């Protein structure tokens, strides 16, 4: 187990091998310039389990049925495994470091859209998919001097049993995921904060619907409802891993539909959000495959599966 209460295999959906504590320490101690070679050796010594590989190949065939892949599938799977292990090795320091490492764990080009949202004295919502280096976004913004609140919308089995303490000098609050409504509303109505949460998980009491990778998809409506109800800006961001760096891509603020159609407005807003996620997933499939695999493997336990067809038996089962 790691210090966050989840095993490495749980945190990686089986994409990376279960490594001993001594092996993890050795890999973490390898200089950054040589780490990719060490990561590649570790993964080659522990091939992907056949059952996991089968699930992954099948999920890719469902999500990219009519979409050309940017590279061959074996290359994408190898890249996904390398990326996942690398991020897991880097994550402890990325979460625990203070302001002195600003820019080291998350490279940011411009936060002008976020600054404009905060000018009116209101909090702002930053929504991210479970994509790439998404876990370094909240501490990365806190290192830049923002007062940040993070809400983890993954189901209980997929999130740490206890919150990661913020790095020294960081104004970073972790909101409780159980009974989230009261604390989230208090945070939204209180002193201005940057509230970071995932926009592609299924937790919550209500859901919004759209299309992702050509499939009907449902996501928790929490960020979209909060933005509409309290007139907060909603800023989509993506932590893309490129050339060994985590780069924050900031999109234009998401237009919040508020025409009095209730769930219809939520679906419209979620549809706009999922369109952005779709674009990034197509460009960087290796950075979204771990999440897609994770949602596939826990589809029976999710409050609501990501894809509407996730519980279908499939053609082979139907033939039997």
What key attributes describe this structure?
seven-stranded mixed sheet, 320 residues, 9 strands, disordered N terminus, alpha/beta, two-stranded antiparallel sheet, globular, disordered C terminus, Glycerol-3-phosphate (1)-acyltransferase
If you had to describe this structure to a student in words, what would you say it looks like?
The protein is an alpha/beta fold and 320 residues long. It has a domain at 101-285: Glycerol-3-phosphate (1)-acyltransferase. It is 42% helix and 15% strand. The chain has twelve helices and nine strands. The strands form two sheets. It has a seven-stranded mixed β-sheet, with helices on both faces. A two-stranded antiparallel ribbon has the order 6-7. A hairpin with a 2-residue loop joins strand 6 (207-212) and strand 7. Helix 3 packs across helix 5 (73-96) and helix 4 (50-63) packs across helix 11. The longest helix has 24 residues, at 73-96. The protein is globular. The N and C termini lie far apart (40 Å). Mean pLDDT is 88; it is low at 1-10 and 314-320.
The chain-level mean pLDDT equals 88
- Globally, the shape reads globular
Strand content: 5-15%
Name given to the CATH architecture of the domain at 101-285: 3-Layer(aba) Sandwich
In total, the number of strands is 9
Short description:
This protein is 42% helix and 15% strand. The chain is an alpha/beta fold and 320 residues long.
């Amino acid at each position: 187990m790691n210090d966050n209460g989840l095993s490495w295999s749980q945190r990686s959906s089986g994409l990376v091998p279960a490594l001993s504590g001594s092996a993890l320490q050795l890999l973490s101690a390898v200089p950054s310039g040589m780490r990719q070679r060490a990561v590649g050796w570790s993964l080659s010594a522990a091939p992907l389990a056949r059952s996991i590989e089968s699930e992954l190949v099948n999920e890719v065939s469902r999500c990219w049925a009519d979409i050309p892949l940017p590279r061959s599938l074996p290359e994408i799977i190898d890249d996904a495994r390398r990326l996942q292990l690398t991020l897991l090795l880097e994550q402890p320091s990325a979460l625990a470091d203070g302001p002195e490492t600003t820019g080291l764990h998350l490279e940011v080009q411009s936060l002008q859209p976020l600054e404009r949202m905060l000018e009116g004295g209101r909090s702002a919502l930053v929504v991210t998919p479970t994509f790439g280096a998404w876990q370094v976004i909240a501490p990365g913004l806190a290192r830049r001097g923002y007062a940040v609140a993070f809400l983890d919308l993954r189901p209980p089995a997929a999130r740490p049993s206890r919150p990661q303490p913020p790095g020294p000098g960081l104004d970073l609050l972790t909101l409780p995921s159980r009974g989230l409504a009261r604390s989230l509303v208090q945070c939204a109505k209180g002193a201005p904060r940057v509230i970071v949460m995932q926009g592609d998980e299924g937790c919550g009491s209500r859901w919004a619907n759209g299309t992702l990778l050509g499939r009907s998809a449902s996501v928790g409506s929490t960020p979209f409802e909060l933005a509409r109800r309290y007139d907060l800006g909603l800023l989509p961001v993506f932590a893309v891993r490129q050339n060994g760096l985590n780069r924050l891509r900031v999109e234009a603020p998401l237009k919040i539909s508020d025409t009095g159609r209730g769930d219809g407005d939520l679906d419209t807003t979620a549809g706009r959000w999922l369109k952005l996620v779709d674009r990034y997933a197509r460009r960087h499939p290796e950075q979204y495959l771990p999440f897609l695999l994770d949602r596939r493997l826990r589809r029976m336990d999710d409050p609501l599966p990501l894809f509407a067809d996730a519980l279908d038996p499939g053609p082979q089962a139907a033939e039997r």
